[in-house]
Amino acid sequence: MLWNKWIQFYFHLPIIVRLLFSVSLLMLLFGYLIHLIEPSHFPTIFDGVWWSFVTGSTVGYGDYVPLSFLGKLIGIILILAGGGLVTFYMATLSAGTIKHEKDLTDGKVSFKGANHTILIGWNERTKQLIQMFKEQHFKTDTVLIDHTLNKISYQDHHIHFIHGQPTSDETLKKANIEQANFVVITADPSMTEEEADRQTILNIIAARGNHPTVHIISEILTEVQRINAIRAGSNVVLRSNNFMSSLFYQSLFQKDVQVTDIIAKTLEEQQFCSHLIEGALTDHEFYYCAQTYLQEKKWLIGLIRNDEMILHPSFSLIMQKGDRLIYLKGMDLNKRR
């Protein structure tokens, strides 16, 4: 019964492990045998094992050589049996490495890391976001989930690709969503706006169901679905259509200024932050708070009060307990999160 369990255990091991175990056992056996047959030429078991590995792998250093007929016969058997087994092991190891690389490119390998960022959807926005991660040295592993891509090279994009539907629990588990810090869901450009928003909401529900506390950032195209995205569990909802419309509007009245370049430069070099107002600033005017923050090279631009965002308020506005101040600060290119 015990022997059968060992056999079952052996054949349930990965083939690479089985071959390595078989090669090692065979070399140990022949090394021990040659030590017994010619103890004068192989004074220790280790000397015999060294000879068996060198001979079985067809390297043949020649520092240990059997002299007796029986010893030479053992050597012949070792070359015939061990040489083929070692060659098969090396070929299997090489084939396994190539297969793993192909599976990684095809999105079939599960992600084993933690504290990573999951991107759902492959489009120009995710491409640019990945490029920004790289340029700004954002210290996070990135996992991409997409069902339209057949393959993507890790060497080219430095991301871990998972092929599959983002609404599938199996796909999300492959991305190890339970240990992720962020999930970024972009709208599918191949769908209509209504279809894309419905798909985004389904993606939010699936992600939230697999990780109740993960921070989800989603892109919504229509105003009618914004509240549904929040209800589904999105922490941040980005309205890309509103943003683009605002840019078009600003550009109509700023013919001599590239509004998009100004905003892009601001987002590239400045970071938007918020901070719960401290006791020392409570009951002071907004102007006083702005001066205080300016001393720390932080540009105060507004506040959040009762879930309402107030940008560029009156300088005489009195700060209240529970307000969150919104400010800009320069990014440190040498130190990222």
Can you summarize this structure?
With 337 residues, the protein is an alpha/beta fold. It has helices spanning 2-11, 15-37, 45-56, 69-105, 124-135, 154-157, 169-174, 193-210, 226-232, 240-253, 259-269, 286-294, and strands at residues 117-120, 142-146, 160-163, 182-185, 215-220, 236-239, 270-276, 298-305, 308-311, 324-330.
What are the key terms here?
Alpha-Beta Plaits; Rossmann fold; 3 domains; six-stranded parallel β-sheet; Helix Hairpins
User: What are the secondary-structure elements, in order, as H or E?
Assistant: HHHHEHEHEHEHEHEHHEHEEE
Rg is 32 Å
Domains, number: 3
Shape: elongated
Explain what the structure shows:
- The protein has twelve helices and ten strands.
- With 337 residues, the chain is an alpha/beta fold.
- The chain is elongated, with a radius of gyration of 32 Å.
- The two termini are 56 Å apart.
Fold topology:
Elements: H1 2-11, H2 15-37, H3 45-56, H4 69-105, E1 117-120, H5 124-135, E2 142-146, H6 154-157, E3 160-163, H7 169-174, E4 182-185, H8 193-210, E5 215-220, H9 226-232, E6 236-239, H10 240-253, H11 259-269, E7 270-276, H12 286-294, E8 298-305, E9 308-311, E10 324-330
Helix pairs in contact: 2-3, 2-4
